[in-house]
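User: Structure tokens for this complex, please. No commentary.
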Amino acid sequence: MRTTIINVSNRLPVTVGETITKSSGGLVAALEGLSPEDYHLKWIGWPGGSTDDPARQKKIEQLLVQEHGCVPVFLSEEEVAGHYGGFSNSSIWPLLHYMPNFMRYDPAWWEHYRNVNQRFADKVLELAQPGDLVWVHDYQLMLMPGMLHAAMPELKIGFFLHTPFPSFETFRCHPKRRELVAGMLGAHLIGFHTFGYMRHFRSTVLRLLGLESEITRIRSDDGHTSAMGVFPIGINAPKFEETLGSPEFAQRRDDFLRANAGKRVVLSVERMDYTKGILHRLDAIEEFLSRLDVNERDSIKFIFVSVPSRESVEEYQELRADTEARVGRINGQYATLSSSPIRFIHSSVDFTDLCALYATADVGMVTPLIDGMNLVAKEYIACQREHAGVLILSEFAGAAEELSSAVLVNPYDARAVAQTLAEALALPEEERRACNEPMRARVMQFDAQHWARSFLEALQAADISRSVEPESAENAAARLRAAMGGGERVALFLDYDGTLREMEREPRAAKPTPEIRELLQGLQKLRNVDVLLVSGRSHQDLELFFPEPDFSCVAEHGATFRRAGQREWVQWDRDISYAWKEEIRELLRLYEHSTPGSWVEEKRTSLVWHHRKTDPEFGTWKANQLTHELGTMMANEPVKIRQGRKIVEVTSAQVSKGVAIRRLLHEHDYGAILCVGDDQTDESMFELDQPNLISIKIGAEPSRARYRVADPAAFRRFLRELLTAARDGNLHTAQPAVIH
Ligand code: GDG
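Assistant:
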């Protein structure tokens, strides 16, 4: 069966004039290379320009849909200025390329960015059918996956970022940093060019949204999972092969060879963009020229093809002016009577000419300051068939990871680049060929079509099932109501932090709200219902939060107990030895000192090292290390070592929430036993071997609990509905309570 791909990019690959012509970028090639037997392609995007004449829009739309499989989203001039020139290219682009000094921000741009993302999403939603794959491209549309996922959770969404993803320290500068990464997380698959970009993204998600991830998976709080992958984009290999074999190419190649006879040619091709390192390259060229004598100068020619780009943005206008001034100065200084060293072309060249230039240049000089991938580098290699040129490549281009036999340079080091250029020009042919051949084989094999196929296959395989299944909590509610309605006695064993109450950075701040008090008291007052708070907190803490013994409380994982209606706390662990604490206290203190933001908490039955206020990655790493060390040290002691949520805890093995509950269960014959918790330490409750057990896990982490609820707020709604049903005497209703 054919799968429909709805491909979404900011710009449709068309030029709309009197007629419509399809352009031939890398993305077009990649997608057109997909087998039409397997995939049916629809492309959504802005067609360029801004016409607000509805009749003309309709006509353009008809032509685009019928003849090119493209569906236009028409944008006004104001929208284009705010979304594209403003937010996309003046705000996010510089930041994604580690240039916060170029970042500007205007709240009005953000409005446009959101609206345009929404308009694109709406267009997808108009077209999408169950089973379709949606593939969203690049930084102009970062919010779209989130918008699509919210509106149509069953739709498979992929997102590919064509730029780098910078380190958190850079990305955090953006005023809308959280919204942007949260938008990307709406996708089921997020693709990057390199592992480094993916690593930065994961770290940013952890630091901005607090979401832990595995190497290639991030699970959001609602249970939605985003897979991540490294998919280095390639070139349109068949098109290069075809052109290199054409007579037109041979003609142009010979023209260039004749025109440049006796000269060594150094070629650069790029959009005129400050990320491409044009001014730094000119520094290196100046340095190189300064070392030549007049005769040598005549024998070298630098060709710069700088395609006009984003000309409405101030920084790009300045770059053009600066480049032209620098080129003028260098040419003035180093020209001879017969030639000037730099030929600067500020326009796009024809594709066959581009291939002929690549094929005849002695050196391809590709020195961006940073670049997501850089296809020019790969295209230059693809054209080295007869004439073995040398690729000088910036180590800051994504392509450097694959093209490791290129001559890699640091574009900021002008002297070294100049020196490298001199050496490259002197490299023997054999050596040049030996470097190029394996690179060429790789570039031709892992091309744009391969890239698109592997991304779409991974997207097709992505898991879109949610691990949180709200309906299972509905069943839990129905079971409880049935027991209560049947007059049976019901026990509610409820954890506190992360279950009834949202976690706080400062544990003391997690005071019970009036809503929580009222809920617990209300439930306890019901006939045949016992509420038991089961917490890892000290009994002093619980006493502070709940001074009145309205219901029973188990503190310190089961070591201490206060019965409903009694003020005394009873020690249940009198016969248990805690001598092992002496042994490990010192070690935990060492970790406290060496991990800023962490602290040791001493409880009666346990020692806990908390790391929730540390650097999240450092904290987790230290937690793993500590767990390992403790495991070795405590191998023969009656303790349990657990890594819970932002804690490492050593507890007496003879004390647990499960043991405490078992003890209480002897007192009554319960028709239903509800155990609810969010943490590792609550698993001992879920493991109880009781036929009437109803276990609920709060959150999406793996658990032995049978049912799940997304978060404390949803669990409070669960309790509220139970309470209301009981008060209304509405317990037998077949209609399950709905948990949102
Ligand atoms: C972004 C990322 C990533 C250039 N001049 C002419 C011309 N070109 C073609 C090249 C090449 C393309 O434009 C430029 O692609 P790059 O990859 O080098 O750079 P960006 O435009 O910045 O692209 C980049 C890419 O997305 C893909 O993910 O690699 O890192 O920044 O194909 O051949 N083509 C013609 N005449 C020209 O004068 N015909």
